[in-house]
């Protein structure tokens, strides 16, 4: 149980500070408790999404910051943001696909995508569903890979 809570906490930290590598932590955790692999995947996924929701929320409110507001008034930045609004608006499958791809692959970085989703006012449920599925699948792949390399489930 301690390992579950440790992975959950590390995952939240990793979501907020991308320098913390949750994939490496998860691989080590699974090597210590292979019978709890699915629980550790759930802990990592939930923790990541708790942290990413904070990035999303920050994106929703980033325009309130005077410096950011001034930057967004510049023609080039405004045009770029308008382009992203046009791409996302009325195209929920495109938006969901981009969020899922980022959550699963890490490209573009999911923290950046989370902020952009907040700025673009992507519905929270789309952000949560795509992020949870993408992160969960990513962590399952990490666990499966680690267990294959270490021979944990043979």
From TrEMBL:
What is this protein identified as?
Answer: VTT domain-containing protein
GO cellular component assignments? plasma membrane
Q: Its domain of life?
A: Bacteria
* Residues annotated as signal peptide: none
The entry's family comment says: Belongs to the DedA family.
Q: Where are the transmembrane segments?
A: 6-30, 37-57, 107-129, 136-153
One Pfam family of this chain? VTT_dom
Q: Where is the VTT domain?
A: 23-145
- Family annotation (InterPro entries): DedA_domain, VTT_dom
Q: What is the lineage of its organism?
A: Bacteria, Bacillati, Actinomycetota, Actinomycetes, Propionibacteriales
- UniProt keywords, alphabetically: Membrane, Transmembrane, Transmembrane helix
- Would I find Membrane among this entry's keywords? yes
């Amino acid at each position: 149980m301690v390992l579950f809570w440790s992975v959950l906490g590390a995952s939240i930290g990793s979501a907020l500070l991308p320098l913390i590598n949750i994939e490496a932590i998860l691989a080590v955790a699974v090597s210590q408790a292979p019978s709890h692999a699915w629980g550790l995947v759930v802990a990592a996924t939930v923790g990541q999404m708790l942290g990413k929701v904070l990035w999303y929320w920050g994106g929703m409110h980033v325009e309130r910051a005077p410096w950011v507001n001034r930057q967004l008034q510049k023609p080039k930045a405004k045009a770029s943001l308008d382009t992203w609004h046009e791409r996302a608006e009325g195209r929920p499958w495109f938006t969901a696909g981009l969020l899922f791809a980022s959550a699963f692959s890490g490209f573009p970085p999911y923290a950046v995508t989370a902020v952009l989703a907040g700025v673009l006012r992507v519905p929270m449920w789309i952000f949560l569903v795509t992020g949870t599925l993408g992160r969960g699948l990513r962590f399952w792949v990490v666990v499966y890979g680690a267990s294959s390399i270490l021979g944990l489930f043979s």
